[in-house]
Amino acid sequence: MNHQEHPSFFPAIGRIAGAALALAGALVLPAALAQSASPQNAAARQISGAGSTAAQPIYRAWAESWGKSGGVALEYAGVGSSAGLKRMAEGDLDFGASDVMPSADDVSKRNWVFFPTAVSGAVPVVNLPGVARGRLQLSGATLAAIYTGQISRWDDATIRAENAGLTLPALPIVRVVRKEGSGTSFHFSAYLAAVSPAFATEVGKASSSPKWPGEPVRAEGSKGIAETVAATSGAIGYVEFNWVERAKLNAVRVRNASGQSVAASTAAFRAAVLASPWMRGDFTAPLTNIAADSAWPITMPTYVVFPKRAARAQSTARAVDFFVWSFLHGDDLLDQSAFVRLPDRVQAKAFGVLLQVTDAQGVPLLKGLPMPVTRGAE
User: Fold this and answer.
1) Host domain of residue 57
2) C-beta atoms surrounding 204 within 10 Å
3) Are 27 and 103 within one domain?
């Protein structure tokens, strides 16, 4: 894909900033936004965030680059989406990170705001002796039957029928799942429930901590699943995409809603976004099971959560600056970390959300910009 084919994925900074300000109703120039995003004195104390293990590589990459430009240090703990939101609720973070949108109840009760930062995908991975990387393909219904325990061997007739010509080992299937609450588990289970009524009935719909039937092997974090699958003959697990190459895992091709067997890739995640309501700016719409020929069916966003009124105003202001700087300067690092950047309209809305974060007195933390002017429904 080149810049001309999909220009909305390769914006000029001025266009993104201008769109953000237009959406927010703030009457300032894009240059003011760029100036407000300049990192502050490196001697100031660090900012803190915690949550998504999937997003940890990009936040660390952004923080390293930001630090070289004079930004303060970021202390980020990849503890899982559920634990990140819990710590955010306890008030000991500047931002929380989750691959699942916080519930409307939490947003209202805790006075939070949130926005997405990037897009990736959940990917099933296997350890099958004699099966080359990227050769195994499965339909969503078959994946669901594996994870309910209905299909328990790799030489099952259903798997063989979907892999004609591939020699499958006569091994029992070892299911590996996340031990802790996880956004990757949420999106993986959401997909399985969407394509399999039996899964939805037995396990339930999307959940950060699915009630997996039987006795699957439980591993902590994406790293734990990657290590367990790599060490266990006959294993199947699911990880965020960047772990596939990092751990040299054997990723499964999955049949999407258009009936195509596709491999996970940034191009496939981008295809899902391009065919979704996200292109109209709706970042609350799911990205799973999008009907497009080349779309990855388990595409997933990752989000950050801020307090609308920050008790830790000084460090939260630096966290706001960090994400503005990252949106303006971090696209190349997204590509290097196997993530997909946000569409223009969504990134513009993210700027608008950051404009809402204030100190306890209601003063905006994003310096140099007024609070957005309230406008009627558009």
Assistant:
1) 7-119+302-359
2) 12
3) yes
Burial 343-378 (b: 16+ CB within 10 A, else e): bbbbbbbbbbbbbbbbbeeeebbbeebeebeeeeee
Distance between CA 207 and CA 1 in Å, rounded? 34
Q: What is the H or E stretch that residue 303 is in? A: strand 299-307
For residue 181, the one-letter residue type is: G
In residues, how long is the chain?
Answer: 378
Residue 112 has pLDDT above 60, yes or no: yes
The per-type count for the chain, helices as H runs and strands as E runs, is 15, 14
Output the pLDDT for position 9. 42
160, 245: one domain:
yes
pTM of the entire structure?
Answer: 0.85
Q: Where do we find the tokens 């009124």? A: 309
How many structural domains compose the chain? Answer: 2
Nearest CA to 323 out of 298, 357, 300, 292 is that of 357
**Residue 293: inside a domain, yes or no?**
no
